[in-house]
Amino acid sequence: MNTLNTRRWCALLALVTFGLAGCAGIPVDRYRAGQPVLDLARYFNGTIDGWGMFQDRSGEVIKHFTVVIEATWQGNVGTLDEHFTWADGTTSRRVWTITADGEGRYRGRADDVIGEASGEAAGNALHWRYVLALPVGEKVYHVDFDDWMFLIDERVMLNRSAMKKWGFHLGEVTLSFTRR
User: Fold this and answer.
1) d(C-alpha 9, C-alpha 24), whole Å
2) Using CA atoms, how far apart are residues 6 and 59, in angstroms rounded to an integer?
């Protein structure tokens, strides 16, 4: 095998290895003993205030925002009506429809979510994954969100989302929620 082919083979092997490592993660079951136990329908019921920021892959804070969520449930279906106010004064809205499928499993839809979000809760944690149609300037990118929420107490929840495109880390969103 010549040197060029060896280099190509090594580069391909490195990409596959890093790609597979990127798929591995912490299972939500690791948090099964976490307290207080997160009951999505109980926490996301009523008005929730949130404060958040987006950091790019270098860690620089690019945007920050507030969000007010009006949440209701009818049986196993919840509606989270999110109203965002960005630091530059612009506003946006996302309305989630979340269905509890039992045994801590959830699925969700929103207008800017591609396909269906899927989530799993255990203990005080929820692991939520979805693809978001994210507008940047004149373009819209489909970005993978790997979302973790942790219930700290009956009023406070922390949320951290990693954003990726084609497996490459783009940045993170960090949020703090407080129930009224």
Assistant:
1) 23
2) 35
In 3D space, the residue among 69, 61, 116 whose CA is nearest the CA of residue 87 turns out to be: 61
Q: Which residues pair with 146 in a beta bridge?
A: 129, 162
pLDDT digits (tens, 9 = 90+) for 144-172: 999 999 999 999 999 999 999 999 999 99
Q: Cis link prior to 135 (omega < 30° from 0)?
A: no
Distance of alpha carbon 180 from alpha carbon 132, whole angstroms: 28
DSSP the chain: --HHHHHHHHHHHHHHHHHHHHH----GGGGTT-SSPP-HHHHSSEEEEEEEEEEETTS-EEEEEEEEEEEEEETTEEEEEEEEEETTS-EEEEEEEEEEEETTEEEEE-TTEEEEEEEEEETTEEEEEEEEEEEETTEEEEEEEEEEEEE-SSSEEEEEEEEEETTEEEEEEEEEEEE-
- Write phi, then psi, for 153 (nearest 5 degrees): -150, -170
Task: Give this prediction's pTM.
Answer: 0.85
Write out pLDDT tens, residues 86-144. 999 999 999 999 999 999 999 999 999 999 999 999 999 999 999 999 998 899 999 99
